[in-house]
């Protein structure tokens, strides 16, 4: 076996190892929730309140309800893949300032 062949095999083996590790740990690399507790809604957004609801299959989801002047439109804001609801508070406040009702919620499978 030549040196060139050995080098190519080592490179392929290292690449396969890296790809395998990325595959195994992909959820930890993608989803980065804030590990700390989510503060109460009223502490972050004046007038907001904590709400929870349960899906048909029994999953309990937490949310913040931010009232607005208009009752005909509600904007649903989910937390995304990093942080928690408090990081989306400026968006909720801006939408509520325009009169929109806002529901900032954790998505299914998230504890935030």
TrEMBL record:
It comes from the Bacteria. The keyword Hydrolase applies. Keywords: Hydrolase. InterPro entries: AB_hydrolase_fold. One of its GO terms (molecular function) is hydrolase activity. Gene3D superfamilies: alpha/beta hydrolase. This is Alpha/beta hydrolase. It comes from Nonomuraea purpurea. The lineage of its organism: Bacteria, Bacillati, Actinomycetota, Actinomycetes, Streptosporangiales.
């Amino acid at each position: 076996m030549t040196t060139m062949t050995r080098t190519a095999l080592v490179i392929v083996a290292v690449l396969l190892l890296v790809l395998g590790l990325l595959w195994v740990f992909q959820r930890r690399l993608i989803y980065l929730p804030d590990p700390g507790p989510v503060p109460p809604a009223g502490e972050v957004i004046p007038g907001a309140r904590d709400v929870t609801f349960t899906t048909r299959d029994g999953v309990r989801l937490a949310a913040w309800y931010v009232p607005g002047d208009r009752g005909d439109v509600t904007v649903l804001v989910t937390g995304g893949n990093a942080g928690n609801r408090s990081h989306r508070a400026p968006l909720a406040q801006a939408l509520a300032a325009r009169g929109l009702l806002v529901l900032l919620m954790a998505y299914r499978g998230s504890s935030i």
